[in-house]
Specification:
This protein has a 5-stranded mixed β-sheet with strand order 3-1-2-4-5. By secondary structure, the chain is of the alpha+beta class. The protein has 3 helices and 5 strands; from the N terminus they run E-H-E-H-E-H-E-E. Helix content is about 25%, strand content about 30%. Bound molecules: nickel (II) ion (NI).
Length: about 140
């Protein structure tokens, strides 16, 4: 039987949505206020869902402290209070929250202490959230 463990984190970061693939006018039309050249910030809530067997000895899917350590090293230390546009990973990837979610998924996928990364969910505002999963 497979079980799932979810954990929620918060980080603050800024971004500006702009792609060199579009003209100035097209960027403005595509991203609206999010294209403003000074950027803007969000308090992102990041949810990580790990699936796996419940360990017979520990009774856990994944060790909470080990997971926190990985998320801190891979995600929070890198992006909290950062300008996402300045991170090398977004040099050729527009820092939309879809891409931020995908990036977090990729960074955690191979570094989890146990289990499999099932889903990453990022809340950008109280009305917007994005999800990435391994399937599809
Ligand atoms: Ni934004």
């Amino acid at each position: 039987m497979k079980a799932y463990f979810g954990r929620r984190y918060m980080l603050s970061a800024s971004h500006r949505l702009n792609t060199p693939a579009l003209t100035v006018e097209e960027n403005r039309a595509a991203y609206g206020k999010c294209n403003n050249e000074h950027g803007h910030g969000h308090n992102y809530f990041v949810e990580v869902l790990v699936g796996g067997a419940v360990d017979a000895e520990t009774g856990m899917v994944v060790d909470l402290m080990a997971l926190d350590k990985t998320v801190r090293a891979q995600v929070l230390d890198r992006f909290d209070h950062a300008d996402l546009n300045l991170d090398a990973i977004f040099a050729d990837r527009v820092p939309t929250t879809e891409n931020f979610c995908k990036t977090i998924f990729e960074l955690l996928q191979d570094t989890l202490p146990a289990g499999e990364l099932e889903r990453v969910r990022v809340e950008e505002t109280e009305n917007n959230f994005f999800e990435c999963s391994a399937k599809g």
